[in-house]
Amino acid sequence: xxxxxxxxxxxxxxxxxxSYDFIDSIIKGHxxxxxxxxxxxxxxxxNETNSRSYIEIDxxxxxxxxxxxxxxxxxxxxxxxxKFIIYWVFEEATSLMAKDFxxxxxxxxKDPRKIEFEKQKELLGLINEDYINWIEDEQMKILKKNPxxx
Length: 150
Description:
4 helices; disordered N terminus
């Protein structure tokens, strides 16, 4: 679990503004910007009944983003700064969107990750330009372990 505490941008909020409604409105606004499907977005509050990721706010106003795979918790990230939470939410959503895009725009003989990675950077850049560098770092880690195969 990664924990981030630094508050540095427009998403940094004081304790009174850290509410599910506030976070949900930010997420929905960004989702509208990139036309993200609702089922790619997290629910607010702990959710054990479905396979969607969710956001929780604890008593210390720490925000937690929990991803689920096949109905089971697979990862949990925590931060005070919403910039990180928003990144994690849309890193997952744009990954799914980019996979969808690559499936419909596949080029024979080209590693589909090239299309996916470029599309994901494009989408994240529409939300926050800082996120382009963040996702490039993540993509480079993937490619070091598993280089393109075309």
